[in-house]
Amino acid sequence: MTGTFLLEQALNGLQYGLMLFLLAAGLTIVFGVMDMINLAHGSLYMAGAFLAAWLAPLLGSFWLALGGAVVLTAAGAMVLERTLLRSLYRRDHLSQVLATFALILILNDAVRMVFGNDRPLSAPAGLDGPVALPFGLHYPAWRLVIIGVGLALAAALYVLVQKTRVGAWVRAGASDRDMSTAMGVNVPSLFTAVFGLGAALCAVAGALLAPLLAVQVGMGENILIPAFVVVVIGGIGSIRGALVGALLVGVVDTLGRTLLQQVLREGLPPQWASAAGPALASVAVYVLMAAVLVWRPQGLLPVRGR
Amino acid sequence: MNHLRARAFLLPLAAAACLAAATLAHAADRVKVGFVSTLSGPSSALGVDIRDGFMLAVRLNGGKLGGLPAEVLITDDQFNPDVGRQAFERYVKRDKVDVMTGVVFSNIMLAALPEAVDNNVVYISPNAAPSSIAGKDCNPMFFAASWPNDAYHEAAGAFATQRGLKNAYLIAPNYQAGKDSLAGFKRTFKGQVVGETYTKLGQLDYAAELAEIRAAKPQTLYIFLPGGMGINFIKQFIGSGLSKDTMLLLPGFSADQDVISAVGPAMAGLFNTAHWSPDLDNPANRKFVAEFQKAYNRLPTLYASQGYDTALLIDAAVRDAKGKVEDRQAFRNALRAAKFESVRGPFKFNKNQYPIQNYYVRSIGNDGKGGLVNKSFNEPILRDHGDAYVQQCQMK
């Protein structure tokens, strides 16, 4: 095991973690501020990817397509919030889960009808190959772009939530919704804006990951469970918690998939290692979640005032 | 007077004619096919292609199979073994179908299969052909019109050996089919296996595995990652720059027309192994590829060819059994003889009712119209190839 291998895995963990953060950030604010479980969060990620893949050949530029996808996904999500989700806030969590699960099925079929089962989207020319990094490592350029965009958005979100008035409303809403309403926060508009912001982050993640993964109907379902794990680890409603949780999950998942198998191969007969390694690797993230919950049932960085 | 007598004669005659027609309508004057496949959800592309291929053959045949009008009942199994099993039960017991077919995935097929074969209804698999039913659990009512699960991997191993590749790194998801497929590759590969990684089923991001492969520096990388897993892996493999040192070798379904359209131009030059290719030069295939493009405005995949062949096989068996589909033994004997022009070229059934056929190496190249398409090497890599399990099958 060499230094370049560890560096590559550290970058991989960072990249995966930052993408999870973009998904979990929206999820955790919606959960924290509106007390709403939105299973269809992954569908917004899918919508962002499909819209980017649809716009890219029309506009002739990946970055314009990314911008267009973000605007369209956020607008669509805000319409959805005004027309449908709004009526779910006062319902119990079970109704929300059922309604948003139905929404997943509807959106999957709607996307299939409009765009088809899958759609190709390539990274911009020049960014689709590897680049040479120090220590002789060749690393996919696109993953570096994702890391850069992810870090920039995490910083922007921090400024928005910690330093602006809107951010103060969001934090107040996450801490105590009734009190913030009483203090004069325009809750309906805030909810719509928060939902749109969450959708915009999903669309960025969907469009950025599309050249690496595939733009396919149903792509949102796979990413939803890790995103919820991040929310639970970080503390519901907490953006900082989502960032820490996402990076932890990213690193544990990446290292679990390789180091765990290698370590087991050293100490166990090969047939045992190849049976136990992958099984343990798939549960590693959930073991992490269980350990965090035993230690801090509220999550690592819970919002204050709960 | 004469007129009246004539009518008196005519009446019973007419009645008899009517009765005869009525009884004929209930006898085997049509073939009923139950078709259950995954037609919705993220995994539906394969089932849709099988259905489109199957229905194309029926349509080109004037809506008939073996000279009898064909009635094809189609149901979506929703990628759910329970739904699939219930659909089989309904078609077999209530609709009294003559033959069942259609299922894409082995887990659904294995759950539903007993509903057909235990009730004396033949099942012809247009795709899933697990090694268990090839071996000790072989069943007289089960026919595989596709390829045994291991075959593509055996062909890939044989190709790597033929190319003189010294070592290989293998990746598959951590489940039975994944382990079986890598075993198939190792059966025919003479070089050294330097690494074997099993991943989570349904995994999307392979960055960690690619880092391991980069560290291992293998000459060949062989993957068994069906569906979206393969698409994601290939994209990330190409983006990582590993293709300069390592040759990526694929099973045919991971380099099929749908994968090429999802991954894009970066797939040019990759090798893969399959029992069929759109450019195989035989009259049946030329007709199939042209008609499929005309009907659906896209190039056919392996799965479409398998659906088409399944319909041709039923057509030939109904014809050879002289339309007596309800005589199961006669129908089965006609199926075993398999006298049809397969789009894959030479085809016959083994003792276990799995195919004996040729396997080809395909390489992805330019179609001359700005698109990419599979082109096969003319010489098969495996000729008249059966499977490794037939000896365990006790069927006569």
UniProtKB/TrEMBL annotation, chain A:
Keyword Transport: yes
Keyword Membrane listed: yes
CDD domains (UniProt xref): TM_PBP1_LivH_like (cd06582)
Membrane topology: Multi-pass membrane protein
Top-level division of the source organism's lineage: Bacteria
Family statement: Belongs to the binding-protein-dependent transport system permease family. LivHM subfamily.
Chief localisation class: membrane
Signal peptide: none
Molecular functions per Gene Ontology: transmembrane transporter activity
GO cellular component, one term: plasma membrane
Transmembrane segments: 14-32, 97-115, 141-161, 190-217, 223-251, 272-295
Protein's name in the database: Branched-chain amino acid ABC transporter permease
Name of a matching Pfam family: BPD_transp_2
GO biological process: one example: amino acid transport
Keywords from the UniProt entry: Amino-acid transport, Cell membrane, Membrane, Transmembrane, Transmembrane helix, Transport
Subcellular location: Cell membrane
From TrEMBL, chain B:
One Pfam family this sequence matches: Peripla_BP_6
Record bears the keyword Signal: yes
Gene3D superfamilies the UniProt entry points to: 3.40.50.2300
Stretch forming the signal peptide: 1-27
SUPFAM superfamilies documented for this protein: Periplasmic binding protein-like I
Keyword Signal found: yes
All copies of domain Leucine-binding protein, residue ranges: 31-369
Keywords noted in UniProt: Signal
UniProt record similarity statement: Belongs to the leucine-binding protein family.
Protein name: ABC transporter substrate-binding protein
Organism from which the protein derives: Ramlibacter henchirensis
